[in-house]
Amino acid sequence: MFLQQHDRARVIYKYALDHIPKDRAQELYKAYTIHEKKYGDRTGIEDVIVSKRKFQYEEEVKANPTNYDAWFDYLRLVESEGNLDSIRETYERAIANVPPTKEKQFWRRYIYLWINYALFEELEAEDEERTRQVYRACLELLPHKHFTFSKIWLLYAQFEIRNKNLTMARKML
């Protein structure tokens, strides 16, 4: 009987969090966290904390899309969940926020988003063709007339060497 009530309350909280505007959901998150701590198990509590952190990161990147440090934290959290489609979608959203100026200092953190994306595709997703596409898209996006990042060229060439594509590696170098 008690277990059914707890499950019912959990479903109501989750439904409310999905349908209430995010600016009014802060108090609801607090109440849901208290409820889970009081009646839930370890996984339920961890789920609440992860969803609350996701909400906070989502608000941060919505307020300042070029805050790449917030994107790194958000991506680390999403990667820990292991959902491949969600991770890719989050990476795509992050790299869509191109720095507004053509000064190299503003591009450094942004380029590391691309590097992490390429490494994720190569090492975690083990998708060789998609990794190649990520590197190529990054190289096309760079304003080469103003500056370039040798690290991208080297990483791409090393990737091609690991995949025994020496002709492409030579072209990249």
Task: Describe the fold and architecture.
The chain contains nine helices and no strands. By secondary structure, it is mainly alpha-helical. Helix 1 (2-19) packs antiparallel against helix 2 (26-39), helix 6 (104-124) runs antiparallel to helix 7 (128-141) and helix 8 (150-162) runs antiparallel to helix 9. The longest helix is centred in the N-terminal third of the chain and has 22 residues, at 42-63. It is elongated. The termini are far apart. The model has no long low-confidence stretch (mean pLDDT 85).
Question: Descriptors for this entry?
Answer:
173 residues, mainly alpha, 78% helix
Report the strand count. Answer: 0
The averaged pLDDT comes out at 85
Give the DSSP E fraction (strand runs of 2 or more residues): under 5%
Largest sheet: none
Q: What's the number of helices?
A: 9
How much helix, percentage-wise, in residues? over 70%
Helix/strand-derived category reads mainly alpha
Distance, first to last CA: 68 Å
Instruction: From the alpha carbons, calculate the radius of gyration and give it in angstroms.
Output: 21 Å
Pfam families: HAT_Syf1_CNRKL1_N (PF23233)
Subcellular location: Nucleus
Organism: Timema podura
Domain Pre-mRNA-splicing factor Syf1-like N-terminal HAT-repeats: 55-172
